[in-house]
Amino acid sequence: MHKRKHARKHKPDLYAPSLDFTGKETKDQKEALKKSQQDYESKLAELRAEIEKYDSKMEDLHTENLYLESYSRRENIKFMNIKEEPSTNGNENTEDILRNFLERSGLPGRKKR
């Protein structure tokens, strides 16, 4: 029984260089993973900053678009309940259609020049 205990004490010494090599290899891999993680975190921060920049730009463009739409509608008048009639030549005279509508509704229209 003493022989077995004695034999066990010598076995760890046999594997010590192998364990040291494995430990160094593991340490190197751990450092490489940390470096990769730092690189990915740095790239992620750059991408988040870029996304934030584009979000801001998109918001500015949306605001500008709303302004332009409002500006273009500002001068428009919307007429409703005017029946669309098919034109014979494909062109309709909007002015004549509105004058007829105004006359039928009892609103005075300006005379044609």
Summarize the structure in words.
By secondary structure, the chain is mainly alpha-helical. The chain has one domain (8-104). 74% of the residues lie in helices and 0% in strands. It has two helices and no strands. The longest helix has 73 residues, at 2-74. The protein is rod-shaped, with a radius of gyration of 42 Å. The chain starts with a helix and ends in a 9-residue tail after the last helix. The mean pLDDT is 80.
Strand fraction:
under 5%
**What's the total count of β strands?**
0
Determine the N-to-C terminus distance: 127 Å
Structural class per helix/strand content?
A: mainly alpha
**Number of helical segments with 4 or more residues:** 2
Average pLDDT level? 80
Estimate nothing, just give the exact number of structural domains: 1
Weakly predicted, low-confidence segments: none
Q: What fraction, in percent, of the residue positions are helical? A: over 70%
The rounded Rg comes to 42 Å
Helix and strand string, N-terminal first?
Answer: HH
Shape: rod-shaped
Largest sheet data: none
